[in-house]
Amino acid sequence: MNITEVCVRKPVLAWMLMAGTILFGIVALTRIGISQFPDVDFPNISVNVTWEGAAPEVIEHDVVEIIEEALAQVEGIRSITSSARQGSASVTIELDLSRNVDVALQDVQTRVSQASRRLPRDIDPPTVNKSNPEDNPIMWIGLSGPFPQQYISDVARYQVKEKIQTISGVGEITMGGWLERNVRLWIDATKLDEHSLTITDISSALQREHVELPAGRLENSGREVSVRVMGEALDLKTLGEIVIRDTPGAEVYLKDIAVIEDGFEDVRRISRVNGVPAMGLGIKKQRGANAVAVAKAVRAEMATIQKTLPEGLELGINFDSTVFIEESVSEIEFELILSVILTALVCWLFLGSISNAINVVLAIPMSLMGTIAVIYFLGFTLNTFTLLGLALAVGIVVDDAIMVLENIVRHAEMGKDKVTAALEGTKEITFSAFSATLAVVAIFIPVVFMSGIIGKFFLQFGVTLCVAIVLSYIEAVTFAPARCSQILDVSREHRNKLGVWVDRLFSKTENRYSRGIARALKRPGTVLASALIIFIGSVFVLRSLPSEFVPSQDQSRLMIRIQTAVSSSMNETNNLFQEVEKKSTQCRKSNARLQSSAVSAAAAPAAVSSSQRSHLPASANSHKPNSPPNCAKS
Q1: Which of 14, 495, 519, 528 counts the highest number of beta carbons within 10 A?
Q2: Smallest Cα–Cα separation from 617: which of 552, 530, 531, 559?
Q3: What is the maximum alpha-carbon separation in the chain?
Q4: Cα-Cα end-to-end distance for the chain
Q5: How far apart are CA 285 and CA 288, in angstroms?
C-alpha cells in the first residue's frame, strides 16, 4: 500500500495531516521575521580608528599605513581602500566572494590586534565591522526640548535608551549628537608657575591617585576578606583634594591650581529637531528579528516614556524605515491573496464545479503554509525575495493538483466510483506529474547556486520557490486524491449562465487554435524563421536594457546634503545649517519633523533631511557650497 492509497483509504488521516501542515505554517507566520531584504553579509570589512586631534597626514603615516600592512596578509583580499580625516581613519577591505566573511572577520581582528602594538599609545582601540544592510538602524528617534544639553543627554542615555534596550528584538542603540560627560580641569597657568609644576605633574598625579586597585585579601582561621583600595574620587570636592606635590608642610592640592567643572566633552556634534536642541537614538534590530514588530514595540514604549518626561521634552520619530517595509510587505500580501482568489475563479470557470475548484485551491494554503514553516526553520525571513517566491508559486502549485484532478475526473466519467477513480487516476498520472514538477524545479534550482552578492540575495527566492513546488507535488499525489474520493463532482448539469458562456467561449477558442496550428504546420520554415528573428531581436533588446542592483523606489523622504569648506569651524558649520533649516522650513507644507545635525570638519559629509513621514539624522562636513540650496519637493 503506497502513500496515495493510504490517504485515499483513510481520508481523515489525510485531512489531519493537511490541517497540521497549515497549522505549522500559521504558527511560523506569526513568529517569522519581516524585513525588506534577506540577511546578507557583504564581502566588505572595515576597520575604524579614532585619534582625537590628530591631523590627516599624521593619521595616514602613523595609523593607516600600519593597518594596511597588517591587513595585506589576510587571505582572499581583492582590494584595500582607506581614508584619513581629522581625528579619524577608516580602512575597508573587499574580499573574494568565495571567502567566508565571518572567518575573514576573525582573521582581520587578529591582524589588527597584532598591529595595535605599533600604533600610538594614546589612540582609541580600533573597531572592526562587517557590512550588512540589516545592521543599519531601522529607525531614528529624537529627544528634543528647551532644556540644557546636559539634561537632555542624561535623559536620553539613562531613561530613554535603557528602557528601549529591554524591548525584545532590539539590538544595539547608537547615539546621535550625544556628548560624553567629562570632568574638566581649567588649569591656572600663574598658580602652576608659582608652585613650579607642569601639566605632566598633574597628569601623573591623577593617574597615581585617582584610581581603584585590587589589594588582595586578608585571611584568618575562619574568615577571608577581600581588600579594595578606594582611590577614585566620587565627587568634585574629593577630586579637588588630590595631592599634586606631597611636600611636608607645603602640600599642593588640585583645587589650588585648577577650577574643577562637571561638564561635557568638546562640542564636535550638534543635533536639532525642528530647530530645537535634540539627542538622536538609532535603533538597530537583532539579526532575524521582525523589523515591523520591533518598530511597533518601540513606538508603544515611546508613548509610555513620554508620559514620564517633563513638560516640554518631546520624544518623537525622525526616521522609520519599517513604514516602507510594512507597506511593501502588505502590498505583496494583498497581491498574494488576490492571486489566490483569481486562481480559484479560473479553476471554477474551467473545471465546471465549485467542489472541483475548492479541491484544487486547497492545494495553495497547504503548499504555501508548509513552505513558510520550512523557511522559518531555515532561518529565512519574510522579505521581498521570499514573498516574491511565494507569490510566483501560487500559479505553479495548482498545476499538479489540476493535472491529477483532470485524470481522476476522466476515470469518474467512465463510470467508476470516486475511490476507484481517485486511485487509478492518480496512479496513472503520478510519474507524469513528477516529471512536470522536476522540470519546473530544474528551471529554478540554478538560482540557488548563483554566485556573487546577487546570488546571496536570490538564494532565499530559489529555495522558497523550489520548496513550494515540491510540496505541491506531494500534496497532489496524497491529499488531492483523498479529497476527490469524497467531494468529486463530474456533473455539469448545474452550470450557471456564466459557466455555460465560458464553455462556449473555450470551445470556440479551441476550434480557432486547431485551424491556426494546422496552418502553421503547413509552413514550418516560416514559423521557425519568425521564432529565430524574435529571439535575435530580444537579445539585442536585452543588451540595451539598463541594469541596477535595486530598482528606484519613492520612500517619501527628501535629503539635502551640504559640504562645507576645509577647516570650517563648528560655529561656521552650525550657522550654515541654520540657514538650510530656515529654507527647508519655508519649503515644507506639512507638519513633518525636521532633524539636522552638524559635526566637526573631519566627519562625514553634511546633510539635512526632511520628509512628510520620516527623517534621517544628518551630519555636516566641511565644504561650503557656492550658493544656498534651493527648495525641492519630494
Answers
A1: 14
A2: 559
A3: 121
A4: 66
A5: 8
